Amino acid sequence: MPAPVIPFTPAWGTSINFTARNVRKKYGLGGVEDKARDGLNSLNSVSRSWNVQANLTSFLEVDTFLKARNGIEPFAVSGKPGIYTCTEWNFNWLGVNAWSFSATFEQCFRLGI
């Protein structure tokens, strides 16, 4: 089943942040720590962040879309490969019928896709 598509096409910024997935366990107070890779692909958490400016009569459609996914259910972005989740987003009122939207989208990786 294809992922739902977010109801606008965002402008992508120029930075990509890579985060290696690992498990850490600290022992006692002496600073001893054990680390291990987590998952099949330990470098699979890729977040892409950018700001989106849009003249919208309402931000409700995008806000409702992201709230419905609750940062867990992935979605597609028109014109961009891959699927993404979003756990934080922000709307700023710029004036009548104008809103600024910013968010961090994290690319998802699924087995069998």
Q: Termini, distance in Å?
A: 10 Å
Uncertain residue segments: none
Extended strand count: 7
Helix percentage range: under 10%
- Mean of all residue-level pLDDT scores: 76
Question: Counting H and I runs of at least 4 residues, what is the number of helices?
Answer: 1
Question: What portion of residues belong to β-strands?
Answer: over 45%
Radius of gyration based on Cα positions: 18 Å
Structural class: mainly beta
The largest sheet, given as strand count, sense and whether it forms a barrel, is: 5 strands, antiparallel
Provide the succession of SSEs: EEEEHEEE
What is the spatial order of strands in the main beta sheet? 1-4-7-6-5
* Global morphology: elongated
Number of domains: 1
